Fold each of these.
Amino acid sequence: MINSSYYIEDPGYQGMKASYWPRIILWLLSIMSLVMLVKSFANKVNSINARSFSQINYMQFKNALICFGMFIFFLTFLEYLGMLLGGILFVFGLLTFLGGFSIKKSTNHLIISVVTIGVMWSIFTFGLKVILPEGELIRIW
Amino acid sequence: MIDVILQAFASIVFDPVTLGLMLVGTLAGILAGAIPGFTIAMGVILTLPFTFGMTAIQGLATMLGVFVGGFSGGLMSCMLTGIPGTPSSVATTFDGFPLVRSGKPGLALGLGLWSSFFGGMISAVILVALAPQLAFLGLEFGPWDYFSLIIFALTITVSLSGGNIVKGLIAGLLGLFAATVGEDEINGVARFTFGFDEFKQGFAFLPVLIGLFAFSQLLTDVEDDKRAKSPLMEKSGTLVRVEHRQAIAIIFKRWINLFRSSFIGIFTGILPAAGGSISNILAYDQAKKASKRRANFGKGEYDGIVAPEAANNATAGGALIMMMALGIPGDIVTAVMLGALMIHNIIPGPTFIQDEPLLAYGVFIAFFVAHFFMVGLQAFSLRIFLLVTKIPMYVLASVILAYCAIGVFALHNVVFDIWVMFFFGIIGYFMKKLGFPLAPMILGVVLGKLAELNLARATGISDDLFLFFLRPWSLFFLIMAVISVIFPFYQDAEKGSKFSNIYVPASVFALSVPLFFMESVTRLIIALIMVGISFYFVYKSFIKNKLLTN
């Protein structure tokens, strides 16, 4: 980023250059990161609390990663599915992944996703006059 | 002046739409405050997308409803279940829950509710009286002073957000950096766009805020599988009848505690970044120290409920003072309100009250009215609260994540904003995991452009950078910034050590220096008093040390 700040265009106007402020921030950021690094080396590591990468319980991030994955899926296919259909699928998928799968649960999850996204979509579309992405799929249909 | 106040009053009280929106906002705030894992800030952030289609005053009034409601919502869960709904009601749990368990739930709720109401009313009066005066003071500020004030706002946020100060500074700088992406406002030159046209507009404030705060919070809430699947509260409490009359009578008998706690709340609110989470504990601590029934604290003492509840609602008024008078947000909630004003093309600052008197006084009136709604809605919201607590967290989180996406899209009707929210959501989540505070980053994003603009103005007028140290107000804020950076070390220092003895008098003395250079007799007198106080502290510690050595 520091390197990139040296390629910021200078239109030659009088006054503060566009690269001045970001460069101050980036240098301060570098100094602070260095301080943190030095401090982490200087602090004696408690061998009981210290954990290597292999000891970290990656399963604690499972649900967060599911959310990330579902969100990427939702955003990637938003153009095709639209906000209404995409939103319903996103909420249903997330509820199923996080809450578990059974016929009773899935029925509940489907009802929740259709009702909540339907209500929100209606409020924004009809109440707040926001044109939400319609989606190519619905357009073709 | 009076006609402006009356007009503002009419625009709120006689407009059924605004009143209706405030009513819904207050109810939403009470529920957001009552649900553990949700915060008032999150409630206000999630309200913001709905306000795009409203007028500025309607939007702000709705958000104020959420803000005020949120503070009182926290008391419901902490009293009925012993789990504080928000960090600003932690101290209420100490005596509120024992009083409920002793068989007086109605009285406990009444005390909390009416203390919140009176605390809010006191802060509203101070807000109306102080904000215009502080704004007059702000008119003296030049770009140097404003830049230094922003630096102070950031450093105090870092020092008060707890934990590692270096991590806090890194978070603040990251926020400032995020605000530099896109075309700069002074020259219109693209920065850090890496060839992407979407980056030219920069990162909009709302997606960054929702991502950093709401998105990352929701991910944290569903992290634990077992907790995510169980209802929001295992113990959801029971419906109780609030003892209004008895509670008011008890509070009136404790008026000193009420006023003291309210002033603690207002002062804490004025300080950037110090919110209700600090004021409620400070007020509780002071009430305990001043009480003759110290031994009863923790066992259902009335004063132990009055103090934190009056303080946390008063904090709201204090935070609004800074936002209204100087355009500097006192906490995350006022930062969001600042963003809401910017969406309506209104830039708060010292001239805000003069330029937009109807809107400014409208905010004051809305703050008053929201407190009445808060009292009126308590019984109804209690019923909804009991229902909401049965919903598992994963359901709520999934629905709100989708809502965040819709809300963010509504800002500019571009999908890129949702990607921005997602990106900052990931950053926020991992920053939290690694122990970086998010508040400095959020404030950095909000104040970044303002800081750069004022720095550009200052260097445009004169290239003498020493003006930052030679102008009294600028020097005052820079000294405050240094004091706030050292504050965590003072907190950690051993009591009675040389450093802890010298910190307070040296700070007071240093702050008095710029006051001597201000051309005002009052300020000169204040400076002299401050010098006197600092010498008194030095003398006191000298005597104490002498006694100890003897």
Amino acid sequence: MSVIEVSKLTKYYGKSRGIVDVSFNEEQGEIFGFIGPNGAGKSTTIRLLLSLIHPTSGSAKIFGKDVTTHGPEIRRDIGYLPSEVFYYEGMKVIDLLKYSASFFDGDCTQRMRELSEYMELEMNRRISDLSYGNKKKVGIVQGLLHSPKLLFLDEPTAGLDPLMQRKFFDLIRKENARGVTVFFSSHILGEVQRLCNRVGIIREGKIVEISDIRALQKNNYKKVCVTAKELKPADVKMAGVTNVQTDNGTVSFFFKGDINAVVKKIGGMKLEDVTIEEPTLEEIFMHYYE
Amino acid sequence: MNIFFYELKANVKSLLIWSFIIGLLIFMAAAKFSGFVGDPEMAKIMDSMPPAVLDALSMRAFNLTTITGFYGIMFIYFGLMGAIAAAMWGSGIISKEERDKTVEFSLVLPVSRSRVITAKALTALVNCIAFVLITWAISLLAVRSYSPDQAFYDFLALEMQAMFAIELIFLAIGLLLGCAMKQYKLSGSAAVGIILATYFMSVISAMQKDLDFLKYFTPFKYFDAGELLQTGTLDGAYLLLSATIVVVCVAAAYWFYNKRDLYI
């Protein structure tokens, strides 16, 4: 069952572009990575799905219901962690969390306590006294305390120290194992690679590629690094070679095609070193952007 | 209900500040009044003033040396204060979420925008009611030493009803501005701008007989203290006009807020 169905979603802010013709589906239980540089339209897409803003054209459904007409109903089962967290400054953490919980059915007290213990959150401090990272922790607890079925994470790790990041990822994995669907927007590919099953790449408001994360990595691309004396980029020129870069005597490039061809070519050189590896998502990503 | 109570708590400070200001105003004015209470010289000075000035300050209808006449003069200040407070509450209670960037929290909760407006408008309404009652109570306290007659108390009650009506009108206008304007910074200033413009309209319409028609455009003229004193009731036609303005503004507020993009 598709939890999110987006079809030809378009948003213009006046004349400036938000997103154009974005379509994708996210299945129940998936962790979907949404990658793109700043200003590509990641947050716009999320805000459209949360009906904070309304689409210029196209439509989006969550849990099979249209987001513009069934917003409040849908949001009952949604958790959202914005990239920058802003709460009522004068409130204490505990009061803010209780206030948030009061909008949902059922008792969230137990879970609120567990989550804030896990995230090492101090409940009695004022929101205005919290650092950026601590506000983010409040956001994590607030976004999860009502046990949502769908989580929107918009660049969630910014401001968290590496230890907290790891705890946070474990938490998301645990939620996911319970059946929670996760929509994970980020420009940091490493974390998407660690967490997601499938990724959508967005660029200048348009979806460039949607694919399984492994397929994206495999996709027959190999990253080849060759070190040899007096090696010039021109020496590796052949069909299937892209993205040639020289760095201190080492030439690296992407190769797509019959691996034997490239091995043969390298075989004719007097090598000092050679590696052939899977490119990281980061590198594939840069590739999409050129 | 949770939004209502949260907002009520968040707005207590503002209500206290406004109450303090109006209290200060009333007590300062009462202290001044003690200087010319029952003084025939004062009445003479007033009589020698040019009628246009008296019209502009809507002082012609009153005998300043009586407490009732004095409170007639005070009415315009109550009206202005009530209008500004109500408009600021109405616009601020909506637009502050965008100003403080808290919309990504408060409007992602499972509540419809209409429910948010309803809860917040109710809070602002409670504030307005409280503001009138506080003004009323402080007035009673401030004039106690002049041992006013029953006629004064009736007039004061009428003035307070009129103040409440003016508050309602500007609360609705403020609410509309807060809901409709994406430029949250402007909604408060726009509200005050409208108040000042309508106030000066009321002054001009009183001074210039051929600009008399302006009185329909300014709520300050719907409830003129002189008229209130003479007739002893609120004008039915103007009450109807006020109610229409309130209903239209509030309906428009709901419509705009549901339709527009939130500013994030």
